[in-house]
Design goal:
12 helices; phosphorelay sensor kinase activity; alpha+beta; cell membrane; HisK_dim/P_sf; Helix Hairpins; 4-stranded antiparallel beta sheet; ATP binding
């Protein structure tokens, strides 16, 4: 049977776009850089979404209006200046030079507000640098070309407050100096003030509005985080904010109630199962005690004890943290208690606590975390004779390490051993009484605190188990 691979035009476009991007890795790098520069928080992103289009639209409108205004006013001013200069040139051409040169200069100064000089004949200066915005040069040049109709030279850059114009005649060069306001409508400060002022007002309104809209989302996130770590949710937490946020908060509260009900039902069921199975095992032990001490009864007694240990592990795994509430707990004190209780093992156990500014007190489910660390210590004591327990705060986390000098676990198997009922085939997991649940229970308890557990290479040659807990 033939297989026909059909692609739609849209998929072909997407594929070709993807290929072009792959052929130009710098485009992908620029995209990644832009993604890293953009804000990550909802508050900042919402502000960006609101402010950016408004400011851009406002800027385009204001720029278009001011640009047209500048062009119209500048053209009118340049036309008036060019007409004045043309009139002065005509007067200079018609009157005798010797007698009336000074009168023309005075007329330009007193009546037209132009500074005029009559220079000896010669060539015009070479063209100077052009300004970045050539609006004045363009408008003034067009008007002079239209009204004067003589070679001319203008300088709008040399003196920031004045504009110099030179007109070449056969008998002289006429130099005119006008103020910039006579030829150019410079209102850039108004434009900048308009943009900055309106942007500040918009930003202030948006911040005040968004702060009230984001606060319920942050409260919902804090409540979900606290519930996920087994901590008590603030009593004043109620659905607030926009309709969608209230719906999410109501759904979260309903989910919390269902989870609590499920945990309570499971705990009640496990308590009944535990009681009934322990009763049966107790009867087995009593019946075995009444029998004669023979190799068969000793084997049966060993099997009963193994069944009891495996039952305790299964129940502990199914029970999890048992709905225990998190309370402030002195972690070094808890670890010292675990070390004291583990003194029955043949291994040497050292506890090392890194010095910190204050006590290491965390909101913990004390019995659950004790069970998790005890599982790690028991596992280490089973395969090594030297154990080191370290605890140290690291930023927003607290790190607990359990090192041993046993045979360790291959790196390829370190993730598999966290699977329930998983057993290795090497010397670290060959004892018959091992149910394969110790590490799975420890990881579940660590995750119920919002933390994690990982395995690594011990500094003393064996296995290192690392529990990371949030402060």
């Amino acid at each position: 049977m033939a297989v026909i691979n059909e692609t739609t035009p849209d998929s072909q476009k997407d594929l070709s776009l993807y290929r072009r991007i792959r052929e130009h890795p710098h485009v992908l790098r620029l995209t990644n850089i832009a993604g890293e520069m953009l804000p990550k928080g909802l508050y900042a992103r919402a502000l960006l979404i609101i402010i950016t289009p408004i400011v851009v639209l406002e800027g385009v409108i204001a720029f278009a209006f001011m640009e047209r205004h500048w062009q119209a006013v500048t053209r009118r001013l340049s036309e008036a200046t060019a007409r004045d200069i043309a009139a002065l040139i005509d007067v200079y051409s018609d009157l005798p030079k010797a007698d009336n040169a000074q009168k023309i200069v005075d007329l330009a100064r007193d009546r037209l507000n132009l500074k005029m000089e009559i220079l000896p004949p010669g060539d015009l200066p070479p063209p100077g640098p052009k300004p970045f915005f050539r609006l004045l040069d363009k408008a003034l040049s067009n008007e002079l070309r239209k009204h004067v109709q003589l070679p001319f030279w203008i300088d709008t850059v040399g003196e920031s407050q004045n504009v110099e114009i030179r007109v070449k005649r056969d008998d002289a060069i006429l130099r005119f100096v006008a103020t910039r306001s006579q030829t150019y409508a410079s209102n850039s400060h108004i434009f900048l003030l308009w943009m900055v002022g309106s942007s500040v007002i918009l930003l202030t309104v948006a911040i005040l509005f968004l702060r009230n809209q984001i606060r319920p989302i942050l409260r919902l996130a804090d409540a979900a985080d606290a519930f996920g770590k087994g901590r008590a949710i603030s009593e004043d937490f109620k659905p607030r904010g926009a309709r969608e946020v209230r719906q999410a908060a109501v759904a979260f509260l309903q989910m919390r109630d269902r989870i609590k009900q499920h945990v309570e039902q499971r705990t009640t069921m496990l308590a009944g199962v535990s009681h009934d199975l322990r009763t049966v095992l107790t009867r087995f032990k009593l019946e075995l005690a009444l029998l004669e001490d023979t190799p068969e009864t000793r084997a049966l007694s060993t099997d009963v004890n193994e069944m009891q240990h495996m039952l305790e592990d299964y129940l502990a795994f199914s029970k999890g943290d048992g709905g225990e509430e998190a309370k402030p707990t002195d972690l070094p004190e808890l670890l010292q208690e675990i070390v004291d209780e583990a003194s029955i093992y043949a291994a040497t156990i050292d506890l090392k606590v890194r010095k910190s500014k204050g006590d290491i007190v965390l909101p913990l489910k004390r019995q659950a975390l004790k069970r998790a660390i005890t599982n790690l210590v028991t596992n280490a004591a089973r395969f090594g004779d030297h154990i080191i327990i370290r605890v140290a705060p690291e930023g927003q986390w607290v790190r607990i390490e359990v090192d041993d000098n046993g045979p360790g676990i291959p790196e390829s198997e370190r993730e598999n051993v966290f699977r329930p009922f998983y057993r290795l085939d090497h010397a670290r997991n060959q004892d018959e009484g091992n149910s394969g649940l110790g590490l799975a229970i420890a990881r579940d308890i660590a995750k119920s605190h919002g933390g994690e557990i990982a395995l690594g290479q011990s500094s003393i040659g064996g296995l290192r188990a690392i529990i990371s807990l949030p402060q």
